[in-house]
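Could you show me some protein's one-letter sequence and the numbers that encode its backbone in two labelled lines?

___
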Amino acid sequence: MARLTKSNLPQFAVDIFQNEYLAEGAREVNAIVTVTATGGGTAGGQIGGYNDGPDAAVVIMVDCSGSMDYPSAKIHAAREATAAAIDAVRDGVAFAVIAGTHEAKEVYPGSGQLAVSHPGSREEAKQSLRRLTPGGGTAISTWLGKADQLFLSRPDISIRHGILLTDGRNEHEKPADLQRVLDRVQGHFTADCRGVGTDWEVEELRRISSTLLGSVDIVADPSGLADDFRAMMQNAMGKEVADVALRVWTPANAAVRFVKQVAPTVEDLTERRKESGPRAGDYPTGSWGDESRDYHICVQVPAAAVGNEMLAGRISLVVPQPDGSTEVLSQGLVKAVWTDDLAASTKMNPQVAHYTGQADLAVAIQEGMDAHRRGDVDNATSKLGRAVQLAHESGNEDTFKLLAKVVDVVNAKEGTVRFRKNVSEEDSKTLETRSTKTVRVKK
């Protein structure tokens, strides 16, 4: 595998946004860390022009359980979508297709290995899709396990990405079985998950996508699958470096309270920490192409008197090297200064305030929809009213529109709403699925 260095990776920049001023005795330091990667755009799945084989692989997992034939438009759309995704695989990228039921079967190439993409192999793969036929149950752990086997057949490949489609609940295995496999494959590959129709479980797919550092979304109408699969594959083809971690160092007697990705979606990384040296821990961020993401980091520091200042944290972007070392791609500092200036210490940084609200918005929607499922309409109305208020305040127009399909908005500013009668399952599921999508701070 080619050695990954600053010269053959996208250029990473770390920007820190915070109010570093604390009141006397205050102990909590909050900062928004914006990470931006630019200058990518290599082709052929090879990083930095190295030609020692593909350095990217993708496995498409397609639900072929019996329910995919009801209506039959679902399995037809799944074949078309998989074909569209295959067409978007760049030359030189390794790939495979799996049919998922209560077991996992290799549809292409079918040899226990990954094929290498070129015009001929892509055409062969599309011809093989006629073997995507519905029948059987749903045990998603077997799909993930098979994908992991295929990826592990090429240990020289660093960027590994899965695309998973399902139309139903994971009914033919115990939740513990799925969790056991997720624990095993975590960190081996990333995965984007899609639910087609409305009979699948949002929380189930979110657990898979969250563990595997991917996305989750709904495609309510099967006719929209092809465009969605094509876009997912194009995004996957833009990834150029895998296993980037956010390394947070804190001084003695300080501790990290939480680390959350807050844009483009909310994802709590706090429990994913791996110790990486004295007072330092790594938080996984997955694979990167040309893109920008925001993270909210909260550090608890020792209380200090007015006039004291300290380095509360050092934030680094690191990537592993073949020899076991890590390369530092970029770095930023989080500071703390104690002051008796009330105006300075009470002023909330705009980025911190915005993303705190976005995280609260996601929680309010999820708690509101959960209350509605339980029949607790009063609590559901209260939570979704708060969500409407937060979406309105932050300018999250997409989420506001989704909320307005579930509740009648009486007063957005005050969060006064009424639950709509006869809300469709599609509208409810779309709101819940996309609840973690955020908008960035307006400059």
Q: What stands out?
A: The two ends are 41 Å apart (CA to CA). Residues 1-6, 42-53 have pLDDT under 50 and may be disordered. The chain is about 30% helix and 30% strand. Residues 350-373 form the longest helix (24 residues).
